Model the fold of this input.
Amino acid sequence: MESLSKNKIKWIRSLGLKKNRDAENLFIVEGEKMVLELIDLWPKNIELICTTDLNFSTKLPSYTTDEKTMRSISSLKTPNKLLAVVKKPQLKLKQEASFIVVLDDIQDPGNMGTILRTCDWFNVDQIVCSTNTVDVFNTKVIQSSMGSIFRTPVTYCDLSVFLEDTELPVYGALLEGENIYKQQTERKGIIILGNEGKGISEKIQTYITQAIHIPRFGGAESLNVSIAAGIILSEFCREN
Amino acid sequence: MESLSKNKIKWIRSLGLKKNRDAENLFIVEGEKMVLELIDLWPKNIELICTTDLNFSTKLPSYTTDEKTMRSISSLKTPNKLLAVVKKPQLKLKQEASFIVVLDDIQDPGNMGTILRTCDWFNVDQIVCSTNTVDVFNTKVIQSSMGSIFRTPVTYCDLSVFLEDTELPVYGALLEGENIYKQQTERKGIIILGNEGKGISEKIQTYITQAIHIPRFGGAESLNVSIAAGIILSEFCREN
Done:
């Protein structure tokens, strides 16, 4: 394997910024488990792989580097021995999707990645994000999605246009909503999750056809949005 | 209000390290909402309050500072106008607790804080942590708990000793566990949550009397531990 050049090091570092990822249509995946999954599921998207492991073998373009350089290009506290630069897949809307999660301005990359992983677990067909939702190719989103980004289709659009068009029931958690434990739910419909601080925006609330809420038993004022997502999806998937 | 001295600035910064928090028995709370809740719920624990707001008024010891200094003592990306140095409460075990969450080596501060907030929402009586679980007074734990630290009692101990003694049913998520949706559950018992990478340790698994699992519908290999906590607690609290 060739050694990673100074130019390539500089170029990989530049992909830490969204504007550079967007301009080059690339993103970064780190960690042995995720890179191996990537090689398995999206081999054609891999631009290059860097490794500190001299025994690592692949037919894909790959370069060796030392641990110090790996630390300098990695976004992780404890860099792993594998890092890949990946071509972004096309973000598209599946026409036949009937179990959909809509994200209305989710800002925290950790929440976004965890929501992706949870949607993958519950086999959500599609995630539709508002244009102000955090970039799904943000390194922290990718890392906390634990590979779910390779399986669950994500797209960005004007939510009003998307919701205007749908014939599916539209669910959203609102204070005045119905107790979710008492609703007859099935794996069908659109579930809207709102911004961490502001909740679902007023404009988007108007598209909700079934307002729901998770009953509170204690003192916390609210649930983290990814926890709410997990509980709501669990309720939709469990046999009632 | 007096202005924050250089010595105090240095001292507050030093509390970013666990060894200093432990030595002084103090921790830090940031943000307007949480500091106001703190003043309301734990006024006697407040050592001092720093603020950039000259109009802020309290009878508790408080100091003004400028935004630059606030940025230098804050752990937040966007520092807030209020920061408090707080005496740690005594971590204790409620004798009458019957709905308990046990954390077996949870490492990530964000997960720990989110679990605390979720336990508070579902009115868990007590959280019992293994001695290797992340420090509950870690700044990131405090911030992501959103004030739940003031309401839900937390303690650290040798889990074997604690679990050996209990007469409550002990639940734990294991691959071979029973489908949680089919279990008759009530708000009673001990729920064990395992480490992010390794799950529940072998030794602690031996105390489980009711192995459970959350059914998987899609491709993700596992759920984030705080999401699993949310779904399990929701199942225990919903009317079956």
